[in-house]
Amino acid sequence: MSTPKFIDLFAGCGGLSLGLLKAGWKGVFAIEQNRDAFLTYRHNLVQNGALDYDWPSWLPETEHDIEKFLDNYSIELSGLEGEVDLIAGGPPCQGFSPAGRRNPKDPRNRMAEKYISVVQAVKPKFLLLENVRGFNATFKKGSQKQSRVPYSEVVKQRLEKEGYEVKYRIVPSADWGVPQLRPRFILIATRNDLAEDWDPFEEWYGMRECFLTGRGLSTEFPQITRDAIGDLEVTGKELTDCLDSPVSGFQQIRYQDPKTPSPFLKLMRAGLSKDSSPNSLRLPRHKPEIRERFERILRECPRGKTLNHEQRERYGLKKHSITPLCPDRPSATMTTLPDDYLHYSEARILTVREMARIQSFPDWFELLGQYTTGGPQRKSSCPRYTQVGNAVPPLLGEALGEFLLRFVADQGELGRGAA
Fold it and tell me: Considering the domain boundaries, does residue 388 fall inside one?
């Protein structure tokens, strides 16, 4: 049986693709419009050499806007019918996110329509769509506060018309070994000629124990924040110049493997030599008054709870949200804003690598581009913090990929039932 193939739409820096590749899928191509995010994707996944990726010669190996891609490569895309088994993707979610301003008119909401356009051309066996949980919530309309149909239902009905059986659920990423709560909307669709009367989520969760134990992770207790990033604490470490920062003057820790790494850390460090340093360890340079404010918050506020309005006013914070992390519980959901969180024991925000660990990116995965971007560039740029915050946790993607791969195997020969 040939290796099942996937394409990834709105791929970002590659969290979902990485999970699928590690599960045993073969990559065909990915569509991502941001240059920095795509450079990270290409560097780690396409050019890696150790992963099964075969980028087509007809598609330039660069970033692509999906609308222009559909206009320019419609013939080549249709030629993939019968060749691609899975279309995966996470359409932009800002208009649905409860962490921001939920706006039903946000044009990014309609990117799911472009996902469906690719489905119409390729007609793969399976579809996998990931989004924020707000994708499944209703918007309010008019003075009577009447509820609209959630956009998830709109997408479901469209895909059913295209010949797919569609199921979806809100899934806590922590269920699959990610040291972060991060509830996500997951949609799994199976082409009708392959579909059975089944609940894919029930079967997926049936393999949870095997998935976690196979990676040395607990099936009873979730992974916690300290076990993910405890080795990256500054306390007791030697500091050195940060060499991968486009801006000089920053420092980072000199990395040393801990004597007794947690099971999760062993998983993140797999394949690296002893004391091999991951990239993106640049430490923030907080002003003294900011550090003093953070120290007060850590002394006076409970860990793991977002500061309320009264607390934010007490500390002179204008931010809408800031949460001191709890070391002994899974992290709050990582966003694209590094100052949404405080380290659980050090008066600072997290490094990019700490956020990447909490997202379950392995240490060999290198983030490229600027660390942060401000001013007019903020809306169009995708610095490292943003790349990580937008990503699908690779462990979650790997669990989904392994489950779908088992379903392919149960179907027997891939060509069986092909349209």
Answer: no
Confidence (pTM): 0.92
Q: What is the rounded average pLDDT for all residues in the chain?
A: 91
Question: Which CATH number belongs to the domain containing residue 122 in this structure?
Answer: 3.40.50.150
CB 212 within 8 A of CB 175: no
Number of domains within the chain: 2
pLDDT in tens, 58-87: 999 999 999 999 999 999 999 999 999 999
Position of tokens 């240490």? Answer: 363
Active-site choice (13, 93, 242, 382):
93
Alpha-carbon gap, residue 167 to 189, rounded angstroms: 6
H or E segment to which residue 165 belongs: strand 164-172
Q: How confident is the model at residue 149 (pLDDT cuts 50, 70, 90)?
A: confident
Domain holding 296, by residue range, is 284-350
Length of the chain: 419
Q: Is 156 in the same domain as 209?
A: yes
Do the bridges between strand 126-132 and strand 183-191 make them parallel or antiparallel, or are there none, so unpaired?
Answer: antiparallel
DSSP 350: P
What residues does 89 pair with on adjacent strands? Answer: 9, 129
Strand partners, 26: 5
- Same domain flag for 204 and 298: no
Q: How far apart are CA 238 and CA 377, in angstroms?
A: 34
Bridge partners of residue 252, in order along the sequence: 240
* Last-in-domain residue among 315, 333, 350: 350
Q: Would you say 169 and 186 are in contact if contact means Cβ atoms under 8 Å apart?
A: yes
**Using CA of residue 304, residue 308, residue 314, residue 318, what is the dihedral sign?**
positive
* Cα→Cα distances 324→176, 292, 344, Å: 24, 14, 6
Whether 114 and 138 have beta carbons less than 8 Å apart is answered as: no
HSE of 324, CA atoms in CB hemisphere, 13 A:
20
Please give the sequence-ordered ranges of beta strands (E in DSSP) within 231-364, or none if there are none: 239-241, 251-253, 323-324, 341-342
Residues 362 and 300 sit within 8 Å (Cβ to Cβ): no
Rounded to the nearest 5°, which phi and psi values hold at 377?
-75, -10
- Concatenated DSSP letters for 283-313? PP---HHHHHHHHHHHHHS-TTS---HHHHH
210 is catalytic: no
pLDDT tens profile 97-131 = 444 444 555 554 578 899 999 999 999 999 999 99
